[in-house]
Amino acid sequence: MKVIDTHCDALLKLQLAKRGTPYGQELLTFTDSVELETNLGFLNKGEVMAQFFAIFIEPEIPSDEKWQHALEQVDLFYTEVLGKNPQMKHIRKWEDFDSLKSGEIGAVLTLEGADAFGNDLTKLRHLYRLGVLSIGLTWNNANLCADGAGEPRGGGLTLLGKEVVELNNEHRVFTDVSHLSVKGFWEVMELAKYPIASHSNARAICDHRRNLDDEQIKAMFANNGLIHVVFNPPFINKDRHDASIADLIKHIDHLCELGGEKQIGFGSDFDGIISFVDDLENASKYQNLINELLKHYSEDVVRGFAYQNFLDHRPK
After folding, report:
1. Helices vs. strands in the chain: H and E counts, helices first
2. Model pTM?
């Protein structure tokens, strides 16, 4: 069964390797480097029809270098992911999903944290032009747009952050709530036409700051938002670094109980996590999850989780 995955950090891994850390001086290749959990061979084996690639700038990067780091990752997306792999097709607008041919894999560019553009909306507009289709205002820390889930003061959106959400609406771009503070989440709910949690789970099942509580989940579903479950064990089982596929399915069950059967998907966080769900260690293992879900849900419902819910709720 085909799969759409709304979050991975392969671009950061490619960049770190190019810069010489932490993989020595050896460059990674998107085609087949086993250090990449979302390399082309793994995506093919897992029957992934579209992979979202996040631009993520590590928080310790100095502010005046963040834009350069973002452009490096965009360049790697164009040269290493697309340029060397004709099977990978750039999704620049939502309608491009409809023209994917059998055997092709869609590649979607996203931004995880507004740190890359600071308060320069010209840079943001450049990212739209380069094909960025989903923007998370923060990672865990605060920036000029909002507070993240790890910021102790728990502030919401700044005026700049609200302007960015409005620009996302104008450009038919998702606003991603996965790393936002609680207050920031609720302010996005008031503004965003296209909300998504690209990689988050249910806090009622695993009490972690990166997960969404029941009221947030219900608000997402009421606002036509998508919630894509993440495969990071600490977000699946509290204070643990191990998880089974059955543990992950508990989160899907809970989301369904809250009315989200038609708005659930997958956002693995491959290449951004250091521990893994058993039998779900990279993109090649996706069908293990599909097969387990088919024991609990009908084929139509599982097809929804795998890709159809996303296609039905992408920005129109």
Report:
1. 11, 9
2. 0.97
